[in-house]
Amino acid sequence: MPMLKAFLMSLCPLTSLHVLLEGNSNIRILEESLKPHGKSLESLVWDERSAPKAQMQVDTNSADVLTLRHVANHCIKLKALGIPLEWQGLTESDSAHLRVSPPRISRL
Predict the structure, then answer these.
(1) With 0-12 CB in 10 A as exposed, 13-18 as middle and 19+ as buried, what is 38?
(2) Among 64, 1, 5, 65, which residue's Cα sits nearest to residue 34?
(3) Is residue 76 a contact partner of residue 86, using CB atoms and an 8 Å limit?
(4) What residues in the chain have per-residue pLDDT under 70?
């Protein structure tokens, strides 16, 4: 992972960043990558999995609500977002998503 972090930090600000990490996951890479790239990103897809996604009902995602808040705070030009979310918590009620997402993300 240090090589991925170094690579992402060495790039000029990106408008699109799409990454799938499987196995040893480190969400800090996303948070740190948003510092130089967040203000310019228009499209972000970030998926970190602890294991291969062989069965859809098995949760292998390692992202959390704090990740969503971090994206909302740093990516002001974002038009497209793809990150794994725990759908059970988001579908409890019609307004459950508002607890985890700031207004900027809710409008995407």
Answers:
(1) buried
(2) 5
(3) no
(4) 1, 24-27, 50-66, 85-108
